[in-house]
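Bench log, entry 3. Co-assembly request; chain sequences pasted below exactly as received.
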Amino acid sequence: MRKPDLMIKDRVNNNKSKLRKGLWSPEEDEKLMRYMLTNGQGCWSDIARNAGLQRCGKSCRLRWINYLRPDLKRGAFSPQEEELIIHLHSILGNRWSQIAARLPGRTDNEIKNFWNSTLKKRFKKTNNSTPSPNDSDGSEPRDHVTGGGVMPMHELDIMNMCMETFSSSSTSTMQNFVAGGGCSQFDPFPMLDNRYDMSGAAAAAAGLFNMQAQVGTGEIGFYGQYGILEDNNMGLERDLSLPPLESRSHIEENINARPVDLKSNINNHFNNGCFNNTDQSFKVENMFGFGNHAQGESLKMGEWDFEGLMQDLSSFPFLDFQVE
DNA sequence: AACCGTACCAACCGCGTCTTC
DNA sequence: GGAAGACGCGGTTGGTACGGT
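Structure output for the full assembly:
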């Protein structure tokens, strides 16, 4: 993208509003990063002001969510992630945030871009048809196939993939998953929450920072998130209809890309127990993100069909680990 | 080497929803 | 109850990278 020094023009253009637009400079990134790590998330317009950024809160929010968040996974989508995106899109349509919620470390923007730039074209080429019936505009989920008969090939692939994924983990894995939450006394990433935390027994066994929970490589990751959908032990059935968002399993590799001081800051923070998955005092609300999406609230607009949807999803063979 | 077209992606914009006063 | 501000989402834009000619 544009080099920071080429943004002078932008700066000049935006003198009137005093608010910068365009690409973020490394200095701005660092300011925002520092502020978020020190103060945590709050009102975005306050964050923008207090962090000394001449940006609107909206811009700060976007930058944080799409780029600075330590748990973001960068790089190409794995074939398994592609499959999952295709599958979820066939069900959810262009509800990128909901799709992203099931792909650890991926943002809605990233998935949206990937869909529009890659998958859409690929399907046009190979199929002369759309990747999913939603592709036409995607705003409305189609009737999904679980009740209806023919299962598209990619869904069979996903089933196979997930069966492999859980062939050695199944129920106990998911119980561990649910029981293995982290703690959070100070969380600079309230939006991320510990709900993403701990991709199951693998995490419990290996420890977060040693675990390379590569999404789509067979470790428990995003598929596992479905696993808590019907875990009634927590009495959270309804809330669990919105499974966890991203895991933090890629924090370390992202941290490594940060300036040293920030890196140590983050490490200190996490080592101080926030991701200590042996902490038995974990909070349910942290684990499941009551701070945000799944706040135990009523379904919001646009989620009206989601519960039923997920119920249908639970009928997928590859989700059988839930009820074994 | 220069040009062109395409792919990719960061960021903005507009709108709907939620929250607060 | 209504207005204002904040937030979140999806669509779109615009710039850079890259490959082909």
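Residues 1-3, 6, 22-23, 43-45, 57-58, 61, 65, 94-97, 108-109, 112, 116, 138-139, 302 of chain A lie near DNA strand C (CB under 10 Å from a C1'). Chain A has a mean pLDDT of 52.
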